[in-house]
Design goal:
The structure is a homodimer of 169-residue chains. Chain A starts with a helix and ends with a helix. In chain A, 40% of the residues are buried. In chain A, helix 4 packs antiparallel against helix 6 and helix 6 crosses helix 7. The first copy, chain A, is elongated. By secondary structure, the first copy, chain A, is mainly alpha-helical. The longest helix of chain A is centred in the middle third of the chain and has 22 residues. Chains A and B meet through helix 6, helix 7, helix 8 and helix 9 of A and helix 6, helix 7, helix 8 and helix 9 of B. The structure holds a DNA duplex (30 and 30 nucleotides).
DNA sequence: AATAACCGATACAACCTGTATCGCCAAGTT
DNA sequence: AACTTGGCGATACAGGTTGTATCGGTTATT
């Protein structure tokens, strides 16, 4: 049932997660939809909750792990669900305060693997924040604001540049 | 009249730019609103068009100019209109294809000053893209996804790090 | 067998959307 | 001065959406 809702989200975008639209697309009664998910945000939260979160093994080499995470995130953004989630989260947060918190949590979860990957490198916390932001943010902006395939190569260059210069410093 | 619409956007968010809502808030007849701006995207485009775009003089020193641009962008994001525009653009682009193009143009315009600032530095085009993305994207993500005051200090550190390492390389 | 929990169907008032139509008033024309 | 044009406000309309409430039927639970 939620899988049908996910289909709908991917095809028609985050604005389609309304009771009526879900009813028409999934065949589930409108009453039932209201019972379980009072707001579109609830639907989205359920979808996010169901979405698979692949756990990735760390090699121990921060640079190598960071590159791997870049690839993984690019793939996830390209393969839609994550990108669609983000767009929908921004859209809903415009009207529903509850979506704001959900959005922050989701972004944190997206970024978390990078923090883990950099855990091996012996860096001050602030540096970790900076590096993660510089590497991940452009990917998110590409997917969210520019609608172009995420600049995978750029992200890899950023990893090299940041981690290289930090190790040198 | 558009000023009233801008007020509305800032207070109630991008979802409030609907004909009905505009009618109630501005007193302008619903007919008239439909006549001029058929879609919320049109309203937003008009607001963006009216918004002041301060032109900034370049000192010639890329690093100094970049820092100045970081400050300027942080201020604009903090003072709301720009941030509200971005949120609204993402929201509308979810349903209206016309908003996608508008959004891309707007982001390009936001980024343009940084490109100008870096024009003085003798850098290959790809490097310019990388630097700009690394500096600007975190600011946009902060404002758009995390809802926290843009990390001004981080952006300044990024300028130093990127421009410093590039000059050294 | 009785009860509770869940689902679907229907109904309802309130609202929003898009479009069309009408009368009004001001600006400019001849 | 009479006329025309253009833009605005007001109203009406059908169609769709939203939340909520209510009722009957089905399935598990005990």
């Amino acid at each position: 049932m939620l899988t049908a809702a996910l289909e709908l989200l991917l095809v028609e975008g985050g604005a389609a997660l309304t009771p009526q639209r879900l009813h028409q697309a999934t065949g589930v009664s409108r009453s039932t939809i209201y019972r379980h998910w009072a707001t579109p945000t609830d639907v989205l939260a359920a979808l996010i909750d169901v979405a698979p979160t692949a756990r990735r093994a760390l090699s121990g080499d921060p640079v190598k792990d960071a590159h791997a995470e870049v690839d993984a995130l690019c793939n996830r953004l390209r393969d839609k669900p994550v990108g669609a989630f983000l767009q929908a989260l921004v859209t809903m947060a415009a009207t529903d305060p509850a979506a704001v918190e959900l959005r922050q949590r989701y972004v944190d979860d997206l970024v978390a693997p990078f923090r883990r990957a950099l855990g091996g490198a012996d860096l001050p916390r602030q540096r970790v924040d900076d590096v993660v932001a510089a590497i991940v943010s452009p990917l998110l902006v590409d997917a969210l604001l520019l609608d172009r395939p995420t600049a995978r190569a750029r992200a890899h260059r950023a990893v090299d540049l940041y981690l290289g210069s930090l190790q040198a410093g």
